[in-house]
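To whoever is on call:

I kicked off a structure prediction for a single chain this morning and the downstream step that reads the tokens threw a length-mismatch warning. I double-checked the sequence; it's 416 residues and nothing unusual in it as far as I can see. Pasting both halves so you can look.
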Amino acid sequence: MSNKITSLLIASIFFTLAGFAQDPSSLAKIEQNVIQYPENIAPFFHQLDQLSQGTPKDINIVHFGDSHIQAGITPEKVRQKLQRIPYFGDGGRGMTFPYRLAHTNNPSDYKISYTGKWEGARNAVNRHSSNWGVTGITAQTTQVWSTFSIDLNTSEDTKHRADHIRVYYPVNDTTSFEVMIKVGVKILYGEKHPEGYKDFYLERPVTEVEFLLSKAHPNQSQFLLQGIWTENTKINGIVYQSIGVNGAKVSSYLRCKDFVPQLKSLEPDLAIISLGTNDAYDNNFTQASYENNLSRLIDSIRKAKPNCSILLTTPNDALGYKKRFNPHNELATQSLHKIAQEKGCALWDFFAIMGGPKSIHSWISSGLAKKDYIHLTGKGYNYQGDLLFQALIVKAYLGDHQDFTEVEPEPTPTTD
């Protein structure tokens, strides 16, 4: 990267950091807030270089996780900071899922509305069975009059638009209804792809789209939605997509039949895996099983995109059953370090950043974690997003510049 580009990036990131939510009680072990084994994601950093120098290509980041990621707060914080850097830009929202159709919580940065009866199925629920794709969640209806809509912007903080929309569903299933989209008064029918999705191209970028169903043949009786992907083809930049499922373990994503082909279509440049909280919560947790499942998931990602950079993140400290101390969190962290080195991944050790075993208590006292002793608060997740951005972009990508070590921004008021 040229000195000129570096200087301009530093200046733009400086302003991005103006909203950095500093932990008022200095709980986080800032010296631990680094990306370990960063050489393993050097290809991703090289792609950032190319994007900052004007190469006309989106950079696709896919962040996998559980309820911490389904909530959407941490990914949205990182997404905003990356996309607001002028030399990176907003390439679109990427893969999303209308979680409300599956009767579960939806990230707050986009809004979903629907009509008709829909039934959800999650890869994290053992009794559920479905043809899951890369999102690990589905919503199904047998009512052809059912509809749903997506509004990509729910506040002034989000400015996403899309002129390319992709609907993921089993297109080769002869019992499936057809899906269409409605923009204004215009209805588009799209183009099917045998890989398992239908593409729609719009004349201009929009923020809201309605999805309709139709029955073209007597044997069509249902529709199974696997995901929605949106892109603004008018702008090249960062596409940061978060994929989370409440209760998910690593093994949950191994249940997804269409995981590899759908991930391949997303062309990920960086995959972030934030899974381990639910694995460690299980009384029957073993490091051997956890490591085996992690290895298999990493292999699946590389089957979809062989040169994809992978960043593993450790789970936060949390208590176990009946709020008892849970030693499995530390064991899971040890396993993640081991797998990162064996499989050529980078690692962000949030468990150490929090303060290690029993640190959840002080985070709760400071309003950064909830009293369920598992999840963070809105303020905590925002802070986590700030920390991840600092470690990945400011430290690992640009290096420890003096400009940033001297910055001590004021706390940003946040609400849960």
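Update from on-call: the warning came from a stale cache, not from the record. Cleared it. Sanity check on the structure: The first helix runs from residue 3 to 16.
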